[in-house]
Amino acid sequence: MIESFAQLEQLGAGRDLADVFLETDEQEHAVPAADILEALRKRRAVMRDCVERGKSGGTSMGKLVGHEARLLNEAFQSGKTFLDPLTVKAELYALAVMGENSRMGVIVAAPTAGAGGVVPGMLLALEEERHVDPEKTVRALVVAGGIGSIIALSASISGAAGGCQNEVGVASAMGAAGVAYMMGGTTKQSIHAAAMALKNTLGLVCDPVGGLVEVPCVKRNALFAVHGLTAAQLAMAGVESVIPMDEIVEAMVRIGRALPRGLRETAEGGLATTITGSAIAQRIKDEANARRAEKAKERERAAQERKGGA
Amino acid sequence: MAVRHDRKVSILDVMGPVMVGPSSSHTAGTARLGRVAYEILDDDPVRVDFHLHPPLAATYRGHGSDFALVGGSIGLNVDDPRIPEAIRIAEQMGLEISFSEEDLGDVHPNTVRIEIRGASREAEIIGSSIGGGVIEVFKINGFQARFKGDSPTLLLFYRDRPGMISEVTAIIAEEAINIASLYCSRKQRGKDAFMQIDVDSPVSDAALARIGSVRDMREAKYLDRIP
Asked: How far is A77 from chain B (nearest CA, A)?
C-alpha cells in the first residue's frame, strides 16, 4: 500500500504514474487494471455527456443558479471571451457539470459531487485544446484518483469534515496532477502540481447558501479548475512546492479541525449568513413549509373522501 | 500525525461514483446507506424511519438526501435517474416513511440511524456518509460493525461460543475464498454475537448455506459490494 506521497515519489520515479497506481490498486482491491481502465473510460464518457447537456443550462433545484454555462458558452461561441480557449473551456466545462449536478442530473463524483466540475473541466478542456489522446485522459483519471486515495488516507473528503479545502481543494490537486501527467510530466511534477494546487486552497470554508450545492459551489468549481491548471503549469516549468505534499495534507486536516462548525457545510456561517444568503435561506424554508402544508391538506382531503365513500 | 484510515479507498471510489447529483455525501452516500438497510432487511420494506444526526437534519433536504435515503431503501442504485422521484415511487408502493432528528453522539456529521421493517423482518443500521459517496456502517442490528460496502461481505449472527470463528473460516477456506478482514462483536459473553467477514470474491449460495448450517448460527447473510 502506498501510504504517503514521499513513498509515491520514490516508487514512481522514472515510471508511468498511472501504471504505479493501477498496480497498487489491483493488489489492494483485487480489481484488475483492465477493469479499472474500462470503468474510467465509461466515467470519462459520462463526464463528456454531462458537459454537452450542461452547456445549455437550466434552472437548479433550489433555483439559485443554472445559466452560467449557457452565458459563458454564448460569449465563447460569438468570440466575445478574452481569455485563451483552454482557460475558457476549463471554466465552461466545470460550470456545465455543476449545472447538471444542481438539477439532480447524472454526474461523476470527482472526488465529490459538489467538487465534481473541477477535474472534468481541467482534463476535458486540455484534451481538446492540446489534442491529447482520450486514452491518455482516462489514464490521467487514474492518476487523479490515485492522488485522491492517498489524501483520503488521512483526510475525510467532505466539506462537513473540513470545509471546501477538503472538496474543491482536493479536486484541484487531483486534477493538477492529472494535467501534469497528460502534458508528459514526471511523477515528481505531478506530485508538486497537486501540492501547489492544494496548498493554495487551504482554509477554504464550506458555507453554502441555504445549504444547497449551488452558491458558491457552481462558480467556485469553474474558478478552481483554472487554479489547478496554473498549478500544473508551474510544476511543468520545474517549480516545486517548498512544503512537501504529505505535510500540506496534514495541515489541511488540522485547519479543517480548527474550522468552526458553522463553516463546515452547516450553512450557519460565512456566505450562508450574509444578508442575501439569509434571505434566500428563509425563502427556501418558507417554500418547503408551504409544500408540506399543501401535502398535509391533500392527505386530509383524501382521508375525508375515503370516509365519505365508506 | 493525523489519524490514518485502516483501509485505502480505491481509485474508482475516489473518481466516482457515477451518481445523481447534487452531493456525494448527502445524495450518493445516503442512498448507499439506505441501500445497506434494504439489503440487510432482505424483504420488501413496508416502513422505514430515518433518524438524522443534527448536522444532517439541518442540511438533508436541500441536497435531496430524503430522495436518496428513500431511493436506496427501496433498492435503487446511486446513478438511477429515478432517485429524484423516489419518495413518490415509495409512496405508491405503500411504504411508510418518517424523518426525525436524533443526536447520535460523537459521530461524523452526516450520520443516520435507519430502522426498516418488512412484512415479517426488521433491521437497523447506524452509518455515516463520510464523503465522496464512501460510507461506514458501524452498527448493524445493535452490534458494532465496520461495514463499508466496498467488497463482498458475510454478516453472521450467532450465539457466542468457543470455536465459532474457526468453524466458519474453515468453510470459507474450503470454498477457496480469501478473507480480506474479519471483525467480531457481541452484546454479552455467551449470548448474541456478530461476525463481519469481508472477502475478495463472491460467496456462492451453496457456501452460504454451509455457513448457515453451522451449529448456533442464527442467521448468515451475504451482501455483494454495495453499488
From this structure: 28
